[in-house]
Model the fold of this input.
Amino acid sequence: MTTTLTATEPEATASPRRSARKISWDILRVFAVFAVVVEHITHQSQINHPELAGYAFTLPLQFGASTMLVISAFFVCVTIGKGRPGRWLWNRIARLLPAYLVAVVATYVVSRIAITIFNGYVYADGSWLFGVPTSGVHTAFPWYLPTGTDLLANLAMIQAWAPEFHWIDASYWTLPIQIIAFAVAAFLFGRRLLNARNTPAFLWSLVIVPVVIRYTLRTDDSAQWIKSIFDGLALHRVHLFGVGIAIWLWSRGRMKGWHLSIYLVAALIAQDAHAYWTDTPSTIAFGIVLLLVCAAAGGPDWDIPIVRRLSPLITWLAGITYGVYLIHQQLGFIVARTLLDMGATSWERFAASFATAVLLGWLITKFVERPAHRLLTQRPQSQAGKLGSSPARPEPSPLPISQASTAGAGPPTPVESFPSKFPASSQSR
Done:
């Protein structure tokens, strides 16, 4: 019996050898996502809602989401050469969108209920789900009540395109940029538009051009249509995808170490410049994490004894990171505020918010993300499959999108030369 290997299935499953899954990538995913969770619980919460201050510690460094986008770009290069670009793109959309849409609706509904209570709102027609409140209780820190327009804008992923739209959960900013990046990658790869000659110029344009636009066209007093295009396309973050591509090229021996070093420094400078040099500590922290990403991409697996013992937990947490990311921020704030009103301590609020993120992340992964992905990507069995042979396509991997799954992401042996076409990955997912 033979099995067709696709971009969604680890290559190790097609071989009787032991799994080549690299635990180092799982560690990085868990670290990045839960750094976001902790930063939002302890730091961002009191910025959005000052009454939630008072945690015993704060993590003000914002680097987790940027790290996730770098890893995502790295594994675009790893997986895109494994099948037709159109099917590859659909596989990614089928993984991302269903869970996102469910998370948006669930967060909207819970937010409307909770904020109605927090602000003491009363609705003339009794429609708490979409109605406009006619009165409320005066409070020093009122919460913004999302509207039906906000719901539609978030479902359509156009929150950043107009100032009248509001984020139901501010963590969602990474989703539109990922969808756009995946579509661009499928387009470029499908038409072989990048090669050894123009790839360096393409990578450097991702760093330089947005900064030039930021300081010449997209200023505070720019026309709204310019702001909408710049913010809607998240041009201030496209350099993160360039970083992921550059690290992949380096790990395959197709970019020199000195070139990667200069590129990473330039990308970090660009990231700080986009923030108008107001959050340099976060940029420095992100730079340190990039060294770990390089170590995972170009070095041996982090399969040391203590990690080996914890590998089941690490792998499980890595598998639910997308769900955790989708569901943790706004609902975590609501949990913290509810417990605050009940007299809970800061540690109790932190523990409850963290546990809620893990629990809801697992639920949305198990009951939405994975089933929906299987449903949307399954294909009819071939005639051979009907006769008892293998199906035309194996069942898709339960791993989340951009999840590292094989050692193929490491450096090749021997080192390969830069290909005439880019990317041309021989690696599995």
Observations:
- Strands lie at 122-123, 133-135, 194-195, 421-422.
- The first strand starts at residue 122 and ends at 123.
- Residues 25-379+391-422 form one domain.
- Confidence is low (pLDDT under 50) at residues 1-19, 382-429.
